[in-house]
Amino acid sequence: MLIVFSLIEWFASKRKFTYYLIANLAMTSILFAVIMYYKYYGVIVDYSALQQVNQVTAVKNSVFSLMDPQYLLIYIDVVLMIGLLFFRRKAKEVKKAFTRKENKRVMIAVLSVSLALCLFNVLPNSASMNEIVKAEQMGILNYEAYRILANKEIQYVDSSEITQEKIQNVKNVQPPAEPKLFGSAEGKNLIILQMESMQNFLVGLSIEGQEITPNLNKLVKENSYFSHFYQQVGQGNTSDAEFVVNTSLYIPPRGAATQVYAGKELPSLPKLVKSVGYDTATFHTNVVEFWNRAELYKAIGFDRYYDAEFFGTEDAIFFGASDEMLYKKSIEELDRMNASGKPFYTQIISMTAHHPYTIPQEKRLIDLPDRFDGTLVGDYIESQNYADHALGEFIDDLKARGIWDNSLIVLYGDHLGLPIYSLDNGEKDLMAEIYGREYTYTDMINIPLVVVNPGDEAPATYDQLGGQVDILPTIANLLGLPLDNQMHFGQDLFNQSYNILPQRYYLPSGSFLSSEELFMSGSGFNDGKHYPLAGNGNNEQQSTEEEFDRALELLNLSDSFVQSLPNWKKK
C-alpha cells in the first residue's frame, strides 16, 4: 500500500485525492474478491480469474448467497472518502490538504523501504507449493503482485518423450494382458449422466426415516458402485468435468479447460466411439456459449449438442429448464437415435441441484427437520432429493422405451456441492451429524460413480481409488475398444488396485490422492498434511515423497501433451 501511495505522492501534482480514492477502491476490491472467491473455491483468487468475469452474471444467485452483509464493511472507508466530496467546505479542506507536496527524498525513502520489506516477504516464500500458505506468508496484495510479475513459464516435456508407456510407468500401473470385462458392453449404447454437485455422502443417506436419494441408492445396490471416487475439476467446475471425462486428460494449471484447451485437436471418447460407428450428442439446458462449450464440443468431436435453445425456458430453474424437462426432452431424442439402429453415445448434464440450491417450493419433495431450515446443507439435500426424483423418472422412461437393457450407463457427480469454506459452524455441525464425525477435505471431493451394464456380472461395491480421469478407459474396456493409439492418463477401474490422482485448484498445488489418503502440500512435501480417505479410519501417513513427485510429473506430462496438439481451428 505504501508503495502505491508513495508513487502517487511522487508523480501526482493534481487530483491526488482522486488517485488515492481509486487506489483505495482497487485494493479494497482485490481483498473483497479474495474473500468471496475463497468462500466457494477455497483458493486465493488471482488475475487469471478475470477470464471468468463474463460468467458472473450467470451465477449471480450463487455469488449473492456467499456474501454475508458484513463483508461490505470492507468498503466503508471508500464510502467515507466519497462522502467527503459532497460537503463543499470539507471537500475544499481535503483537496487543499492533498495539494501539499511531500518531500521527494522522503517519498523515495518510503518507497525503497516498502519495496525492500515486500521483497523480504515475497522472495523467501516464492518456492512454496501451497498457494494459501504462500499468500499468508507474503501478504494478500504482495501475493497478487507476485502472481502477475512472476508468472513462470511451464517447462514442457518434449512431445517425443510422452508415450503411454511412460505415463503408465509414472503412475506405477500396468494394464493386464487379458482385462476383466473387456467387451462386455460391446455394441451397446453409451449414456453418461453427469449429476450436478452430487457428493458421495448422499448414497444411502436417510434423515428421520426419509431416504434422500432412493433412485440412486437402488442403482448402487443393483450395479457396480465405486465408493472411493473423486472429482478432478478446476475453475471450470461442471465444464471441467465434461472435459476430463471425455478426454482422460488433466485440467490446465490455470483457467478452465474449455477456455484454455478448447482450441486443440483433443483425443476423446466421442472420437473413439465414432471410429466404430456411434452417433454422438451432448445435452445441457444452459446456453452453449457458457464456459465456451461450443468450442469444447467441436474440439472433442460431438456430432451435435442440445442446449437452452432446444430445451426452452419452460419450468426453468437457475440456468435453464429443470431436470425433469431435461430428461423429458432428451429421452425423445434418445428414442429417435435408438430407432435408427445405430449405437449412440450421449452425455446428459443435469443442472437443477446447482449452488445455492434454492429450488422452488413445489420442487421440495421432503420435509426435513427444523434444524435444517434456512441452511445451505438443508437446501442442498432438498435439491438433490428433487434431482434424484427426476432421475428416477428418466430411468423408468429408458426402461419403458427399451433403451435401458441395450445401454451401458455411467453416472457420476461432477464436483463438490458443499465446500467446507462455505459452511458456518451450525452447518458444519449438521455435516458432522450426517457423517458421525468431522466433515473433511476427503469427504468434500468424494463423488459417486455407478456403472450400469445390464446382463453383466453381479452387483458389487468397489473400494479402489478412482477419479474422473479414469472414466474414459473404464468405458473403453467395457465397450471392447483398445486404447493403444489414444493417449490417456486414467486407467480402467475394473482392472487396477493402485491409483494416484493429482489434484488442482480446489486443493493446493502438489496435492494428490493415493490409494490410502489425500495429501495436501505445504511449502513442499515435508510440511504437507495427510488426510485418510473417507471411511478407512487410518490416520497414519501413507503417501510418500516419491508419489508426490510422480503426481507432479503426471500433471506436467498432461500439460505438455495438450500443448503439443495441433489447433483444430486452423485445419
TrEMBL record:
User: Could you tell me which CDD domains the record lists for this protein?
Assistant: LTA_synthase
Q: Which InterPro entries match?
A: Alkaline_phosphatase_core_sf, LtaS-like, OpgB/LTA_synthase_biosynth, Sulfatase_N
Q: Which GO terms describe its molecular function?
A: metal ion binding
Which residues are listed for Mn(2+) binding in this entry? E196, T238, D414, H415
> Where found in the cell?
Cell membrane
Q: Which UniProt keywords are listed?
A: Cell membrane, Manganese, Membrane, Metal-binding, Transmembrane, Transmembrane helix
Q: Which is a Gene Ontology cellular component entry for this protein?
A: plasma membrane
Task: Report TM segments.
Answer: 17-38, 70-87, 107-124
Superkingdom, natural source:
Bacteria
Q: Which residues hold substrate?
A: H354
For this protein, the record's Pfam families field holds: Sulfatase
Q: In which pathway does it act?
A: Cell wall biogenesis; lipoteichoic acid biosynthesis
What is the membrane topology noted in the UniProt record heading this document?
Answer: Multi-pass membrane protein
Active-site residues per Swiss-Prot or TrEMBL entry: T238
Q: Where is the Sulfatase N-terminal domain?
A: 188-480
- Tell me the protein family, please: Belongs to the LTA synthase family.
Name of the molecule in the record: Sulfatase
